Amino acid sequence: MSNGLVLAIAAVLLCAVCIWAGVWIYMRRKYVDFTNAVCGSIDQILSGEGTGDFDFDDESLLSKIQMRLESLADITEAAARESEEQKKQVQSIVSDISHQLKTPIANITMYSDTALRPELSEETRQQCLRTLKNQVRKLDSLIQSLLQMSRLENEIIVLHPRENVLKNTLFEVAESIRLRAQKKGTEVTLECPENLHVYYDEKWTAEAIFNIVDNSVKYTGDCGKIRICAEPLEIYTKITVEDNGTGIAPEHINDVCRRFFREEKSSSIEGVGIGLYLTREIITKQNGYLKIKSEEGKGTSVSVYLPNQGK
Known about the structure:
The chain is α+β, with helices and mostly antiparallel strands and 311 residues long. 57% of the residues lie in helices and 14% in strands.
């Protein structure tokens, strides 16, 4: 083999080695740059800075990975926000419950201690015991309401809407409150078509409407009037409870369905501020909604809208 051919082959091999080395160095640099870019994006996510600015129209592998990382960052951030919100919500609920339980427990302790005093007259002792019994009843009512609230919020209670005769349900609600209303001289009237069939969970919907009527009795003075009426509409059936009670301040209309909300002027009236909250939860879980209209000193109207399913 001639020297010229050997040199030519050697030159070709050398060129091939140089090209391969160049390609290897280039690919390694691209790999290192790519790895650094991905690691940089991950570091930005971990530090809460997002993935930085990049071209969403770029079709490169790096951009595709960065887009996935951006989505992951959004999901992680949303989960963190939700977790923080849930934490605040739990803290708020615990604080609210603690506040609600504190007063009746303090009263029970105070009246128990008073009733045990040996020098107390029998009449005063009996009065203390009656007050004590009343406080225990209030505490039991509060605990039952809290349990209902917890079970509804955690979906332990499952509603089962089915076809019911609405007038029968409303009649039971009216009758269950009538005696207490009569003691105040308050008139309760019911207006509902005889054969109006609506789809709802009978037990829990009755509870929801009872809470509204119960509020009307509490906030309507002596010789007041409460009207319960039902009206079929195209999509919903409207159930309205109207009273001529004290009414709600305009700035509090949107607050009355909040858990534990009570106006300052209502502090002397029995209640803990859970009734309308539970009502809204029950109705909302049946794809219905509430509307409240009120005027201070003239009265309040609370309307429940239940969907006409199956019609």
